[in-house]
């Protein structure tokens, strides 16, 4: 498989490189904005779990574009003259390559100090929009992955209650499963409108979707606290929930139906008049966890399984023992190796084992 094979299998990965996005996930946020208009009137935005930075790129380009073209619209120009410039804060535990117009915080979203630092960059004001595209390393066990993703979303919601202003918008990734009803109910406590969206660029084979929470309106007596256990584990049968505790959340597919299908394989040459040209990723990882393994593999120092076959006759028991025991002295009283009839072939035996070097 050549380096262009992924360009064939994933059209949005290819388009992301052509348009300069750091990851294909940028199209997901763009398609969500097309459906819900979440960027309208936004001056302060927070991107949680931001690395590698594709959603921060979208925020930077779209919000800064409004500023550059403010003079074309007198209403917008007056609004921006009276207010501060757009501010975007990106938060992640991992380091991220810098982006123009984006302030980066390398911190933990479960710490209150991170929320204070975000507010500090906004000069004491709250954010208009909070987005989170974070997801755990999936295990393939859907029940476990859904639970871990729910906990990550609730951690993002916790810090959002500290930094989001009233009537603000919160967008986050969610894994849709049979036991997410309680999570929907928790979101409805804080937002007047909660919708689950599936962008066209999100693979149909994936259980991921995105929850779009609009009009932030927390209960009057609610005090933001990082220690709040929003998802109570005492609920073990979500199907028994009724009334306000069980909410049917609307589901919307985002993106034009004529857009590219994320599950389809496309030819390299999409346009007849334009030849295909391979493009490297816009931003390679700056400190990936697999960096050491890649270096060892290039130096041929990574442990590899080796397959050895030894062929001996039944009369060579002592030689076989010396092979496994090394130079140590073999006791003549050691019992002979038993015959292995099921792998016997013409009075010869084959012994197989794996070693690592």
Automatic annotation (TrEMBL):
Function: Methylates the 2'-O-ribose of nucleotides at positions 32 and 34 of the tRNA anticodon loop of substrate tRNAs.
Entry keyword annotation includes Repressor: no
An example Gene Ontology biological process: tRNA nucleoside ribose methylation
SUPFAM superfamilies: S-adenosyl-L-methionine-dependent methyltransferases
Keywords per UniProt: Cytoplasm, Methyltransferase, S-adenosyl-L-methionine, Transferase, tRNA processing
Protein family according to the UniProt entry: Belongs to the class I-like SAM-binding methyltransferase superfamily. RNA methyltransferase RlmE family. TRM7 subfamily.
Name of protein: Putative tRNA (cytidine(32)/guanosine(34)-2'-O)-methyltransferase
Source species: Caerostris extrusa
One Pfam family of this chain: FtsJ
Top EC category: transferase
Main location: cytoplasm
Gene Ontology cellular component annotations, sorted alphabetically: cytoplasm; nucleus
